[in-house]
Amino acid sequence: MTIELPKPLATYFAAKNRKDIDGMLSAFGEDAQVRDEGEDLHGHAAIRDWMEKTTRKYGVTVEVTGLAGTEAKPIVSALVSGNFPGSPATLHYHFTLDDRSIIRLEIGA
């Protein structure tokens, strides 16, 4: 079963699986926010640093398994595999979108 994601999310997850930082970042608005592992990040520079750090540390791949929520606030369930205890694990990506990009992402179990 293929899940059709909104364009910014499809861009983000495809780039994430390629470990393509520029591709991942291209899905985010300039003033976007990310919350992950208890850390809040604001803007492209901070989000890029987070992407580089977590990509090096965990080397994850993501298999999207579900899509819920609304058009503006989709929630993606995914099986995430990588270099971390308990891998693989199901994580939930809570997005907020504007017309063309991700403006907020919160990742949790």
UniProtKB/TrEMBL annotation:
Pfam families: SnoaL_2 (PF12680). One of its GO terms (molecular function) is isomerase activity. It comes from the Bacteria. Keywords: Isomerase. InterPro entries: NTF2-like_dom_sf (IPR032710), SnoaL-like (IPR037401). The keyword Isomerase applies. Residues 11-92 form the SnoaL-like domain. SUPFAM superfamilies: NTF2-like. This is Ketosteroid isomerase-like protein. The lineage of its organism: Bacteria, Pseudomonadati, Pseudomonadota, Alphaproteobacteria, Hyphomicrobiales.
